[in-house]
Structures are given as structure tokens and as C-alpha cells.
Design goal:
The chain has 296 residues and is mainly beta. The chain has a single domain (2-240), classed as Jelly Rolls, CATH 2.60.120.10. 6% of the residues lie in helices and 50% in strands. It has helices at 106-111, 257-268, and strands spanning 2-7, 9-12, 17-22, 33-44, 54-59, 62-70, 73-77, 82-85, 90-94, 99-104, 113-123, 134-138, 145-148, 151-160, 163-164, 173-180, 185-188, 194-201, 203-206, 209-212, 215-219, 225-229, 233-240, 247-249, 252-254. Strands 1, 13, 14, 15, 16, 18, 21 and 23 form an eight-stranded antiparallel beta sheet that branches. A seven-stranded antiparallel beta sheet has the order 2-3-4-11-6-9-12. It has a four-stranded antiparallel beta sheet with strand order 5-10-7-8. The protein is globular and about 55 Å long. Residues 16-122 form the Pirin N-terminal domain. Residues 275-296 are annotated as: Disordered. Residues 285-296 have a biased composition (Pro residues). Belongs to the pirin family.
Length: 296
């Protein structure tokens, strides 16, 4: 039933930490989901430093999906979008042939407060890897919700449980947010060949074992999965149809190594447009690590 358990790896981004889950050495993707970061949770004090902001950086071959439990982030991109995101909303940016964006904590810097959320990357199908970049925002009222017997659920993207999210996707997938009260149960059907669940808060029981915040459970296909909340809990459900193997290097995703090299060259040469308000400040591409000295 449970194929693999992945523990998040905490990383300091300069001002706050993320828990990186995907990609993982033993499991690079779940369906089209190729990247999964738990941002925070962190409490910011008013006036905190700008090193916490994520400066302009590029993407190709993927869509980014930002979803918050708490806080606010301001998104800017080279398509021209400027959009704050609040809890329960969706920022969906499709990079396609190339886009740059930044994520800044302007409201939290002014007022202080908590930030907690998930950013996922969804690999585009091969035939859509080079589509024109775009950005879409969806308010929480646009997303289907369900509540019964201590389980509250929101379908963020894709199709599941007989419902469809309005979020524009490019391949069959599902992404859902559960809140479970102590003792509540939820079921993940065997609808998709690749499925996983990430425990964002609390403790849940699956197949007689308990799992805590920061763990992702990757499931074998073919069986429905029953969850029981050992404490109040938040669980994110994700997966879908696989889109084929992908290469990931820095912020770029592609089915082609040559395309990754071209994207790196374009970024280094300044050929990728920056968001208008961010033209003087961007994240440089890391230089390749020097070869190991065989005599050391």
C-alpha cells in the first residue's frame, strides 16, 4: 500500500526555511509533480530583511502552483502579472518556453505575521513544454469544497471525487487540501496511477502506522487509502498520470538536455526578460562546481 515515505529536508533560503520533499533520490516525481516545497511555517517580525524575498529567477517547461495556509506573498512575472496571494487561493504560472518571476513578502514586512504554504512545480507534457508563458489567479471561492464528519476538503487543481477545479492544467492530475479533526477519516481513491499525501500539520494513521508533519507518503497503485487523524491535521493529496521522465537543473525542467543548456545560456546572457519592477536585481545562475581533485 505504502511504497515509500519521504521526510522533508530543511533548507535555509536566506530569511526563512523550506522543507524540500520532491525531487527525492528514490522518487523524482509523483504524476506530473516534480518539485514540492513546504514554505515555513515561519513568524516574521515587522521590518524583517529583504533577504527573505525570492528575487527574480527563470523557469522553463513547467507550471508553478503556489498555495498558502497563512500569510501573503506578492508575485511578479515577465508576463506582466502582479498578484498577491492569500490563504486558500491559487497562483498558477505556466513557464512554457520561458518566464521569470519574483516572490516578495511586502505585506508581511510591513505588518509582520505568519507564513506557511506549499509551492509545487508541475512538469508540462512534452508537446506543451514550449507553449507561451502565462499566469492565472484563482480565488478561494472558485475552488470546490466539501465538508462532512470532521473532514473539510478543497480541490485545488485537477479532477477528483467527482469534482473539477477551474484551474487550467495540461495533463490529468489532482491536488487537494484536507483539514481533519481528531478522529476524522478520509479516503483517497485508486483513481490515478501515481498518488501521494503530504502531512503538513499534525499526525495521521495509514495502514496501522502513524505519520507526522513533514512526511510524504507515496502509494502503490490500485488500492484506495484510508486516513485517520490522530490529532487535528492538514494533509495535501497529489498525483496523476505520469508525463514521462524529466531532467531538472536549477530552476529549469525539460525532457531535453540540450534545452536545459540553452536555457542556462539564455539566462547568463541576459536574453530572458525580467519582471518590470525587478530589472535591477535577479538571482544569478550558480557556477558549475569545479571537478574533484583526484589527489585530494
Amino acid at each position: 500500500m505504502i511504497e515509500l515515505v519521504i521526510d522533508q529536508r530543511r533548507r535555509d533560503l536566506g530569511g526563512f526555511e523550506v522543507g524540500r520533499v520532491l525531487p527525492f533520490a528514490k522518487r523524482r516525481m509523483v504524476g506530473p509533480f516534480i518539485f514540492f516545497d513546504h514554505m515555513g511555517p515561519v513568524t516574521f517580525q515587522p521590518g524583517f530583511g529583504r533577504e527573505a524575498d525570492v528575487r527574480p529567477h527563470p523557469h522553463i517547461g513547467l507550471s508553478t502552483l503556489t498555495y498558502l495556509f497563512e500569510g501573503e506573498i506578492t508575485h511578479r512575472d515577465s508576463v506582466g502579472a502582479i498578484q498577491p496571494i492569500h490563504p486558500g487561493e491559487v497562483n498558477w504560472m505556466t513557464a512554457g518556453s520561458g518566464v521569470t518571476h519574483s516572490e516578495r513578502f511586502e505585506t508581511l514586512r510591513a505588518k509582520g505575521g505568519r507564513m506557511d504554504g506549499i509551492q509545487a512545480w508541475i512538469a508540462l507534457p512534452v508537446e506543451d513544454e514550449e507553449i507561451a508563458p502565462s499566469f492565472d489567479h484563482y480565488g478561494m471561492d472558485a475552488l470546490p469544497t466539501y465538508e462532512e464528519n470532521g473532514l473539510w476538503a478543497r480541490l485545488i487543481a485537477g479532477k477528483a471525487y467527482g469534482a473539477s477545479s477551474p484551474v487550467k492544467t495540461h495533463s490529468p492530475l489532482f491536488y487537494a487540501h484536507w483539514r481533519l479533526k481528531l478522529g476524522a477519516k478520509g479516503e483517497l481513491p485508486a483513481e490515478y496511477p501515481e498518488r501521494a499525501a503530504y502531512v503538513a500539520q499534525g499526525v495521521v494513521e495509514v495502514d496501522g502506522r502513524q505519520f507526522k508533519e513533514g512526511q510524504m507518503l507515496v502509494f502503490e497503485p490500485g488500492q484506495s487509502i484510508v486516513f485517520t487523524a490522530v490529532t487535528d491535521a492538514i494533509v495535501m493529496l497529489l498525483g496523476g498520470e505520469p508525463v514521462g521522465p524529466r531532467l531538472i537543473e536549477w530552476n529549469f525542467v525539460s525532457s531535453s538536455k540540450d534545452r536545459l543548456e540553452q536555457a542556462k545560456a539564455d539566462w547568463r546572457a541576459g536574453r530572458m526578460k525580467l519582471p518590470d519592477a525587478d530589472n535591477q536585481e535577479f538571482i544569478p545562475l550558480p557556477e558549475p562546481a569545479p571537478p574533484a581533485n583526484p589527489m585530494s
